[in-house]
Amino acid sequence: YSLPQGIKRLCAYLVAEAPHPSVQSLRQQLSEILPAAVIPAGFNFTDALPKTPSGKVDRTALRHRSPEWVTRETLASPSSLEAIILRTWETVLGQPGLTVQDDFFEAGGQSLQTIQVTNWLSAELGREVSISTIFRYPTAVALAEALNAEIRDDLDQPNSRLTHARSNPSDTLNPLDTLNPSDPSDISNTLFSPLLPITEGDQPLFCVHPAAGISWCYMGLARSLGYQHPLYGLQSPYLNTGVPTGEAFSEEALSQEQWEPMIEQYLAMIRQVQPTGAYRLLGWSFGGMIAQAIATRLQQQGENVELLVLLDAYPGHQMNRRDRPSQTEVLALLNQATGQAFSESSSLAQGKLNMLLEITRYNIQLARQAPVPDMYRGNLLFFTATHQRTDSALTHKAWQPFTLGTITNHSLNVTHGQILSEQVQTIAQIIATHLRN
Predict the structure, then answer these.
(1) Which of 63, 106, 110, 353 could form a disulfide with 348 if both were Cys (CB 3.0 to 4.6 A apart)?
(2) Which DSSP category does 17 fall into?
(3) Phi then psi for 207, rounded to 5 degrees?
(4) Is the dihedral of CA 255, 257, 262, 267 positive or negative?
(5) Are the beta carbons of 308 and 295 closer than 8 angstroms?
(6) How far apart are CA 192 and CA 174, in angstroms?
(7) Could you tell me if 338 and 331 are in contact, meaning their C-beta atoms sit under 8 angstroms apart?
């Protein structure tokens, strides 16, 4: 059904005897068997469905029958906190009319939108709202309930913004007054820290960033794994310091001297969370090279590496014969890692975009100059992206000379850049099986 301004909504037309069931009860029943994204937003009760002369349902005639819309007002009057959450979600997703029962992710929320929501809600509420909290409570009603215990004291303060909203429901509490929803530069600097907790807990899976230096690409994997398998993103240490400069760090001079200190920085990040024990590591692309190097270093230090997962990642010497990437290709790698279509004219260009582009270029060259991998003494779980693969050398067998255990390979019919967007459920299911064993 088409609304003004080109907005489209899914509608259902039902033949039902009087008295008709309520829209709220229908929506509740459907929510038990259907994802939120395919639950109708509008319902129309009719005595009979109109038919064409050939006996088929006359969809054109149905479109002229105005449905009864499910809105926040028809479900319930949202609390002030729910209203803040909904306004933030609607602006981030560009979807007006969301209800307190709508699932943020099923309504289109992805990594960048999740980051924007956590940042904006944290600023609006005056306290940190973590990515993990959004994952765990993806509806406005559930999130508000989870946050209420933390902010109850604020509600009783006379100067609290939430108290003001409760007393003045007609006022606009818009977290976007100072934040531009189309501008990724509004993302909190905390989300550019080298250690990114996505879902927190004991014995996490540490996921190393691809060439772009950020680990937002693993948010979908974290959500698919669930909360029994916590996940931390390891991001580039250069997010804090900027890439090394000077003659010693030129593209021609990159060598083992730069690689070794970098691995030590990743080890220090890991030990902030897990000082010792059975470590679990994963890396996609350039991140796979780093993950394998971390795993071998941990083993050399007497630690146990329980799981090593590589997503279409290969030893650095496999890249030596490739041409250097163009600016367009560098941007494409950044797009894959962020889920955001950046360009050189992006609003992020004056700040974070330039930094990420520098890190991406540096990491690509670092990958080309990486030392020969050390021997990994364990089993390797590998995922190969086979679609449009033209280089026959890029297979899991490239790691055999550097692996004493068994390499278990899973071939996926996607491109390298699609592996975490198109096959995340499959990857999560296989990893979860290994984590349980």
Answers:
(1) 353
(2) P
(3) -110, 125
(4) positive
(5) yes
(6) 25
(7) no
Strands 304-311, 380-385: pairing kind? parallel
| Higher-pLDDT residue of 108, 224 | 224
d(CA 220, CA 138): 13
Q: Angle 246-248-253 (CA atoms, 0-180°, nearest 5)? A: 125
Alpha-carbon torsion, ordered 408, 412, 418, 420, to 10 deg:
-40
Cβ-defined contacts of 162-170 (< 8 Å, 24+)? 162/80, 162/81, 162/84, 162/125, 165/80, 165/83, 165/84, 166/79, 166/80, 169/80, 169/83
d(CA 309, CA 292): 9
Tens digits of residue pLDDT in 65-101: 666 554 444 444 556 788 889 888 888 888 887 887 7
Among 272, 288, 284, 237, smallest CA distance to 258 is for 237
The tokens for 422 are 């198109």
Quick one: three-class SS letters along 359-407?
A: HHHHHHHHHHCCCCCCCECCCEEEEEECCCCCCCCCCHHHHHHHECCCE
Structure tokens of 29?
């029943």
> What tens digit of pLDDT does each residue of 344-369 get?
444 444 577 788 888 988 888 888 88
| Cβ atoms of residues 194 and 240 within 8 Å | yes
Give this prediction's pTM: 0.72
- What is the residue type of 123? A
